[in-house]
Every structure is written in structure tokens, then in C-alpha cells.
Design a protein that fits this description.
Number of strands: 2
Structural class: mainly alpha
Radius of gyration: 19 Å
Helix content: 25-40%
Distance between the termini: 43 Å
Order of helices and strands: HHHHEEHH
């Protein structure tokens, strides 16, 4: 029995009109540039400046006294400054580390704002307590905590 992958692989040999429609090029992994950006940013989100985690959600949740559900939104993601769809590369100069909450909120907008405009929006909302304070309120916690790797 053939699954989707086998069907797609077999269809590549058919040629036109299927050429380029079945399988597309795989995008390069953002893992390495994301991890480098995480370190350069001292484990803080590019937009909201809250701490993030990469590999140990349990330790992060314990460290900050939050639930695993809250912690999942503070997972480090790789964020393209210039979108991949607009020709942006996956190289470090175009990748920043952003928490899942900020990354998803930016890209759920009809027209995602450029990173500078989005940073300003996040900052305004943070000042009003209307962003992601429900996930992690650092003012109630010690600011001397180190990021969890």
C-alpha cells in the first residue's frame, strides 16, 4: 500500500503538468541561527524581552513558578526579520529569537507589521499591561534569573 509520500515520489517522474506541484524544496532549519540568536539576546524575546526556553519546559516552569501551559507560549522560536516568503534568508543576520506568543501574534495579523513597528506595538501594550503579562509577570519575580537552556 502506497502512502502520500510514495505517491508524490512516483508522480515526480510524470513530468508536466505535475512538475513543481507535488514536492517543493525543503526550507533550511532555523535551529542553529535560532539558538545563536537566543544566546546573543541573553535568552530574552526580541519583542517583549521576557525570558524564553529552548529545551526544558519543566525546569523553566519551575524556575518562574508558572504552569506548563503558560510556559509553552514562552518557547523560543526563530523569527525572520524579512519573511522567507519575501526572500528573507535563514541566516543569523535575518533571524532573531522570539517567544512563541509574540511570533504567533505577529503572523496572525492580516498584514504582519515590520519588526520595528511590531516591537513598538508590543512595547506600548506591555506598558499598559495588555500583552503577555498573564504568562509571566516579571515585576512580581526576581529579575536576576538566568535563562533556561
Amino acid at each position: 500500500m502506497h502512502g502520500w509520500f510514495h505517491w508524490a515520489r512516483d508522480m515526480r517522474s510524470v513530468g508536466e503538468p505535475f512538475a513543481g506541484m507535488i514536492l517543493s524544496k525543503k526550507r533550511p532549519s532555523l535551529k542553529k541561527p535560532r539558538n545563536q540568536a537566543f544566546k546573543q539576546q541573553n535568552g530574552l524575546c526580541f519583542y517583549c524581552h521576557k525570558p524564553m526556553w529552548i529545551s526544558d519546559i519543566d525546569a523553566f516552569a519551575r524556575q518562574y513558578g508558572i504552569s506548563l501551559n503558560q510556559a509553552q507560549y514562552l518557547k523560543c522560536t526563530g523569527e525572520h526579520l524579512v519573511a522567507h516568503s519575501e526572500g528573507g534568508s535563514g541566516k543569523l543576520k535575518n533571524i532573531v529569537a522570539a517567544c512563541r506568543f509574540c511570533n504567533e501574534k505577529r503572523h496572525k495579523r492580516k498584514t504582519p507589521p515590520d519588526p520595528q513597528a511590531y516591537s513598538a506595538l508590543v512595547e506600548r501594550r506591555l506598558q499598559k499591561g495588555r500583552w503577555n503579562s498573564h504568562l509571566l509577570d516579571l515585576e512580581r519575580q526576581s529579575e536576576n534569573r538566568l535563562p533556561v537552556w
